[in-house]
Amino acid sequence: MRTHRLLFALMLLASPMARGDPLQWEFLLLPSAEVVGTFNRDAPVTQINDETLKADSLLSLQKGQFKFFAEYLLSDHEGDLERFQLGWQLSSDTVIWIGRYHQPSSVWNHDHHHGQYLQTSITRPDIDEWEDLGGVLPQHFTGMLIESGKQVGKGWRLRTALAGGIAPNISSEGLEPFDLVHPSMDRHTMGYQARASLHPNEFTETGFGLLVADDKLAWVGTPATPPQVNFDHADLRLIGLFGTYAGDNWKISGTVYHADARLYYVGSIINDNFDVGYVQAEMRFPHELTGFVRWEDSSGTDSQYLQLFEEFARIRYIGGLRWDFVSRQALTVQFGNTHTLNGKYDDIRVQWSAAFF
């Protein structure tokens, strides 16, 4: 697929493979525009923004063993320094980063980041949604990230990522990552994540792997709903399996998470767990058309941790069609049926997205 080449280019921007003494640089701009309409709605709260304009920019620099990588997202409702990483190329296979990074235990966000053109569907799986859009898992950390890739066996490639850093806080507005530009004086806790995957060769989306995370999330601010009253912090542990198989004209990918949450209230501790997973299938048709469907499901949605996020989509079905009508520009239409913790709604979305080097 045409987007595969862009995905590989994005991987190379921050990968341990690019190395050289002259100053090397890459820049990628990913603008998008989207409109959304909802119907059959009885959910009191949704994640819907009716109109959205975005421009995601990525910059990579390298001089010898020194690397720099940054991602800035500008939209009609926010401007945010999503990633800011200083790196040292320890070897041809390994890079050590410090700064603000995307946590490695979200495979979807590792592959697509904030650029809409890089993903076939308009929406991402709700379990991998960004914090400021109602996400239930922390996605941005500030600390150290170590990425590596090496050959194992006959042609197989092992890719690993280990990270630890300042975790997002929880407030009545949801998860709030540490902001490098406007750092807060709130108490900060730590989180740790890891991902390992095997791939049949170096340049392929096909592969499978394991992910784990152990994050402590502190409560800040004033409670607004009963689940937040007397809440102090949560210990959230994740383990997950993921896999992708990409053929010439089709692809299927999926991830399943198991989460153990321990919630600390004044005078009590609550233990619960939940499971969330998704699978997405894509098929390439003639005339640069790509059809896609995705099924998201969960169990244990009476979890006290999930009750902190009333917008969470416990079940969602989506389907749509993408048309790459010119080079590096696409139009996408998507239909969705979403069941939140407190209701349901249907939506239709239309999006233009592009990638400019």
Overall radius of gyration? 20 Å
Q: Which stretches of 5+ consecutive residues score pLDDT under 50?
A: 1-5
Named CATH topology: Porin
Give helix % range.
under 10%
CATH level-4 homologous superfamily: Porin
Second-tier CATH architecture: Beta Barrel
* Major beta sheet summary: 16 strands, antiparallel, barrel
CATH class: Mainly Beta
Look at the structure and give the mean pLDDT: 90
- The dominant shape is globular
Strand order, main sheet: write it out.
Answer: 1-2-3-4-5-6-7-10-11-12-13-14-15-16-17-18
Count of the separate structural domains: 1
Number of strands: 18
What is the beta-strand fraction?
over 45%
Helix-strand makeup class: mainly beta
Element string (H = helix, E = strand) = HEEEEEHEEEEEEEEEEEEE
- Work out the helix count: 2
What is the rounded distance between the termini?
18 Å
